[in-house]
Amino acid sequence: MDGGAGRRAYVFYATDSTYGIAVLVFVHQLRRLGVARGIELIVLHLPLPAWLLAAMRSLGIETRAVGPLRRVKGARYYRDCLIKLRALALAEYERIVYVDADAAPLRRLDFLFTLPLEAAIAAPEAYWLPSRLCTSALLVGQPQRGIWERIERRLESLGRERPCYDMDALNLEFGGEIERLPRSVFTLDSEWEDADRPGWLGDPGVLRAEAAVVHFTALGKPWSHSPARTLRLRPRAHPAFHELREAWWRAREEVFAGAPIRARLVFACSKRLSQLAGARRLLEELHRSRSRAAIVGRPALGPARRPSPSDASRSPASGVLEDP
Question: Taking a C-beta distance cutoff of 8 angstroms, is the pair 248, 27 a contact?
């Protein structure tokens, strides 16, 4: 029977150790803000190392192994992103709140479990896009088997035609059925990326006080650059921009402060790899910028330009919309 009587859960997904660590950080921050008694925490995951699964369970997270969705085209990263939609198949729960792990809670999120909803799925509007689509980076759902069956059919249909993305599947299948969450629930950190340039959502100080979840998109993932490097790359950012990334890195250090030595060694290696990956992405961005400039005959932009969220939400390979 759909809709477990009163059962509620926060849901995340992790496809590798990097995202598994991000889940730990999010849950650590969430617990510090407060989680009501009886609300469960679940991570849907592809194969992960035993030490990471143990760390998740020590934080009270239930780990559920799932298989990849193989009937869709596209690069592995984007195929794996579709795993998040399995949260809507957890019919044993009356309501779930799914959040991408490369985000951070800014205040208690338990209100999302009692928010009056008329639809089975609610999500924030992707306000950085010209069309009125919903982002799949945060979902509030009343899971039903029928919802997942519709998603599977849509994925199978799209997968035969072209690469398929989670935001594509959500909006194409449910479209106007998705209820919009209040604007203050979700924001991108690019709102604070340039103190001299107003964001989409108004006063940055008011937004910092009201926003519930921030999704890190400027300069890549929150682990891509250390706070010191972020300060060098974005010296003109609003103070909130740096405050949020510093808080994320502090939380990650706290997660592993009391961890076994093996876990700390793996963690140290993952930090270095993340920093190298961030540097590589900046070089790739510079290369793409120069390539585009050569085509249109314009000067190339440097790597420290302010990225446009509408650019960040487009797959460079296909032009298909997907979450930043």
Answer: no
Domains of the chain by residue range: 8-123+141-158
Radius of gyration of the chain measured on its C-alpha atoms? 19
The fold of the 8-123+141-158 domain, in CATH, is Spore Coat Polysaccharide Biosynthesis Protein SpsA; Chain A (3.90.550)
What HEC string does 5-45 produce? CCCEEEEEEECCHHHHHHHHHHHHHHHHHCCCCCEEEEEEE
* DSSP β-ladder status, 8-14 and 95-99: parallel
Q: Helix, strand or coil for residue 104?
A: strand
**Degrees, nearest 5: CA angle 228-233-235:** 85
- Give mean pLDDT in consecutive 10-residue pieces for the chain, a chain of 324 residues: 76 94 97 96 95 93 85 56 87 96 97 94 93 93 88 74 75 90 93 85 87 94 94 95 96 83 63 56 56 44 38 35 45
